[in-house]
Design brief:
Shape: globular
Helix content: 25-40%
Largest sheet: 5 strands, mixed
Mean pLDDT: 79
Order of helices and strands: EEEHEEHEEHEEH
Structural class: alpha+beta
Low-confidence stretches: 1-20, 163-174
Length: about 170
Amino acid sequence: VEGEGSPRCIHHTGTTWRKIMENCRLIYKSRASTDVVSNEAISSLVEQSAQTNKERQITGLLLLSGDQYLQVLEGPCHNVNRLYGTISRDKRHRDIELITFEPMESRYFDDWGMRLVDLYELTKYPREFLAAKYQYRDGVILIPDRLHEVYSLLLDARALCLTTPWTKKSDPNE
């Protein structure tokens, strides 16, 4: 029986009820459709997306490395799936590849409505750390192919980036 606030269920094999996946995590990678995307354009998009995503209970991270994007979206499956559909039709992306779409019990990026991590903007030591751990070519950290390495890169980026890369601090001594 489905009612206000109750989980959505389906009847299965006559006696078993199974909860439908309500919250999920979706990870995809793509390439920028143009060679150069300005930080201002990306930061504006991320700020706008953060507000919209908050309203839709979606959290996540957008990682930029050269012309490569890696993004994780977490939240209600219907909202995440709809957002991915919008992204997949966005002309700013090409070579979009869905890496995973899976149920989740807890979020990895619950305190990030949407956050941009530009690996090129990292300081020397975090970049060296990532370059030693992941494939690196022509000054660009490559997006891994293996799922466990994708998760590792996303979580490393989260741990290394405590501030928004494009924000300038008002006090140079901070």
